[in-house]
Amino acid sequence: MGGERASGAAGSGGQAGRPRAERTVATNREARHEYFILETLESGIVLTGTEIKSVRAGRVNLKDSYAKVEDGQAFLYNLHISPYEYGNRENHDPLRTRKLLLHKGEIIRLIGKTREKGLTLVPLRLYLDVRGRAKVELALAKGKHAWDKREAIAEREARREAEREVRERQKYW
Fold first, then answer.
1. How many CB atoms lie within 10 A of CB 43?
2. CATH no. for residue 65?
């Protein structure tokens, strides 16, 4: 036994019969600012025991992380999962490369898409599904130029100003 397994394997914990909701652990807000999101997909992630405990405690940082397809397998790089607070010397390396769990057809499709000019795989969020398993929402994205970012900021400010005007007018009704 290699010590690694798909996250949330046995003993989902919690109260019996109580429905569980999906819980977002970490989001990559910078990715939506730095990239045009073309499409998204869900992927499982292989974690060790201390890693899944740290994920459940919310000690995850997606900043600067990215995914790559190599030798027919997908891997996630630079995902920082802090060492488990109560772990011993067998604690994990916070920045180790982690395998993503995708179907073969999805991997083949991603290989074709990422070969296109300027497309990359970026994690948008890490969450726990209803069964307590860690999942990564990946995005096929294209990098933004500086002027694209300025346009997005101007649109956002215009939308906020319009909402502010609507609220002001509703006050006096």
1. 21
2. 2.40.280.10
Structural domain of 70: 22-144
Q: What is the pLDDT of residues 94-131, one digit of tens each?
A: 788 889 998 998 888 888 888 877 788 899 989 988 88
Q: Tokens 């795989």 identify what position?
A: 121
Domain assignment present for 85: yes
Which residues in 72-133 belong to E strands, given as ranges?
Answer: 73-77, 80-81, 98-101, 119-128
Q: How many other β-carbons are positioned within 10 Å of the β-carbon of residue 88? A: 7
DSSP 85: T
State how many domains the chain has: 1
Q: What share of the chain is helix, strand, coil (3-state, %, to 5)?
A: 30, 35, 35
pTM metric for this prediction: 0.69
Is residue 167 in some structural domain? no
